[in-house]
Amino acid sequence: EGQNRAAAWSLSRALSNRLRQKVEGKLAKDSVDLLITGCEVSLWLGEQMAADFNLCFKHLVVKTISSNKLLGLDGLEIPMAQTGHCISENAWDLHDSVVLIISHSGATF
Questions:
Q1: Predicted confidence (pLDDT) per residue in 19-68, tens digit
Q2: CA dist list (Å): 1 to 4, 6, 65
Q3: Which end of the chain is more exposed for a tag (fewer CB within 10 A), N or C?
Q4: Dist. CA 37–CA 26, nearest whole Å
Q5: What is the 3-state secondary structure (H, E, C) of the chain?
């Protein structure tokens, strides 16, 4: 219970700071505040969470992406173009975004 509470507190604090920076004009209004990533079932859970966040927090920009696509885009020595997908090097403003990596087992992300 203690680790979950600490994680929730840290996430809420990071998102509050992001929103404050947007209000102060330090970040673009369409920049991604929370990027949720995972693989398979973990990604599905993240997509559901993002949908809930979008319903509850109208000023928060939340995006989800498969961890495999994210690694292909920016985690390799030679980036792989994500043809046909909504993410690319210039598609989303991810500067200082909060990233939530979901993994049920801790072995995959």
A1: 999 999 999 999 999 999 988 888 899 999 999 999 999 889 999 988 87
A2: 5, 9, 28
A3: N
A4: 25
A5: CHHHHHHHHHHHHHHHHHHHHHHCCCCCCCCCCEEEEECCHHHHHHHHHHHHHHHHCCCCCEEEEEHHHHHHHHCCCCCCCCCCCCCCCCCCCCCCCEEEEECCCCCCC
**Alpha-carbon torsion, ordered 33, 4, 6, 93, to 10 deg:** -10
What's the Cα-to-Cα distance from 44 to each of 24, 30, 77, rounded to whole Å?
A: 33, 24, 28
What is the residue type of 58? K
C-beta of residue 34 within 8 angstroms of C-beta of residue 53: yes
What CA–CA distance (Å, rounded) separates 19 from 61? 10
Q: What digits encode the pLDDT tens for the residues 76-106?
A: 566 666 566 666 556 788 888 999 988 877 6
> What are the tokens at 36?
């949720």
Structure tokens at 14: 């990071």
Whole-number Å distance between alpha carbons of 56 and 85: 26
